[in-house]
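User: Good morning. I'm curious how nicotinamide-adenine-dinucleotide would be positioned relative to this chain. Could you predict the structure with it bound?
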Amino acid sequence: MSGNGSILESISPDTPLANLIGGEEVPSQATETVAVTNPATGATIATVPLSTPAEVDAALAAAQAAYLEWRKVPAVNRARYLFRLHRLIEENFEDLSRLCTLENGKTLEESRGEVIRTLENVEMAAGIPSLQMGDFAADIAAGFDETMIREPLGVFAQIAPFNFPSMVPWWFAPYALATGNSYVIKPSPQAPLSQMELARLVLEAGFPPGVLTILHGGTEVGEALCAHPQVQGVSFVGSTPVARSVYAAASANGKRAQCQGGAKNFLVVLPDAVMDAAVSNMMGSIFGCAGERCLAGSNIIAVGEAYEPLKERLVATTEAIALGDGLDPATGMGPVISREAQERIVGYVDGAEAEGATVIVDGRGATVEGHPDGYWVGPTLLEGVTMDMKIAREEVFGPAVNLIRMDTLYEAIAAIEASEFGNAASIYTSHGGAAREFAQRVDIGNVGVNVGVAAPMAFFPFSGRRASFFGDLHGQGGNAVQFFTDAKVVITRWPECTDGREPWD
Ligand code: NAD
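Assistant: Good morning! Here's the predicted structure, ligand included:
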């Protein structure tokens, strides 16, 4: 992780990845490992150690020691480390993007998009001297002043998912570091390489050793972070069952927790939508990143007469998507993350057919020439889906999308609110009143109006409700600064100065 050159030059499938502890690459003593595969080829590209409890202790002790010094660094200086890191991420932009595609499968264009989001959060956090400013009130009583300062708390941890290997931990990490905490990232064991590369750049930017730790592992390491007395707070992004259990464990252990879970997102199309523009926009939402994004639309609700014109365009556009290796510039959609994911997604489509749905574009059994062992599922569209079917209610997390017919906007809103999840929903319409009614009424965290991926910029919170989010303060922006700091209040009174005497007499 140190030195120049991408980590790709130093990793091999035969040697487990090292942890980054106290600024050093420390080989793990773990006996259990997990293979990282390139989803486009099925080939093993790295091996992740499932770190031991002693390694968790060592990592947290080093992070705590680093925190005690880092918190003394003035905010303006901490910001300068972020400026240097920003430059290094820009200089390594293409390497980072390729790495992300190699480990996750998404197209190079999609990887570039997520590295840009990573950069934007570094930019936002570099404003920390003003973001972390406190508050002051003079004369709260005669001779008394009161100040509120925002202080770091210690070591925070991040438990990351596979689907945005670069971006997701950086919804949190820049703010944790900028506010003077130290940060431990447990990357997804399915896609840990982008975080190792970013950690290498953090060291190159001159951040003190130990302020950023990379600790590899799976469930056990995640659970250990939620229980460890040295950890002040946990940021989790992943599936809902794990988000729920991480939130419960971290809270029961007295830690701060913000846990983003799964999703089932709706795209509602009214008859007055500009149909060509709507379909072109919703493609990125339904099939972008092979449907493996928490903001992916997967229930398309066509209201009234929107159904036929929408279906006709959707089928034509879906059939035109080129499935392939994300590194190939001609590819429109890459593979899914694993063989297990491929089987799960196909299982959902089979199940929907058995429940009475019709598969109108069928991606099951898709193949890609020259890539016989890739994890392929082609873009898939179903119709005749009703809201009681499993595929309409559960998160599929893949490129299988339901076209559902409803009579009114209110029926669509009711279906959205009956969902277990509350991550994102979008409306496509030309009617300002309908758009406003939708945006204000739906009980959803991230709402799009003629926008299929309502992904908040770094200076807004990444929202989410119901089973899509457990906690109160979200990732990104001002919410993140609050999550990683605590308010301290100082009330001050000095002896009063009296006319005619020096105050110190
Ligand atoms: P996952 O829940 O399987 O794993 C996420 C992380 O949790 C991994 O690092 C894993 O090792 C760890 N983990 C697993 N069990 C654990 C436990 N008991 N305690 C602590 N840690 C544990 O999720 P995934 O398959 O990697 O990611 C896909 C999911 O993430 C989807 O459901 C998707 O919707 C969700 N996601 C949500 C958002 C959001 O903003 N809401 C963003 C991205 C992804």
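Residues 159-164, 168, 186, 188-189, 218-219, 222-223, 237-239, 242, 245-246, 260-263, 294, 395, 397, 423, 462, 464, 468 surround nicotinamide-adenine-dinucleotide (CB under 6 Å). The mean pLDDT is 96.
Let me know if you'd like a different ligand tried.
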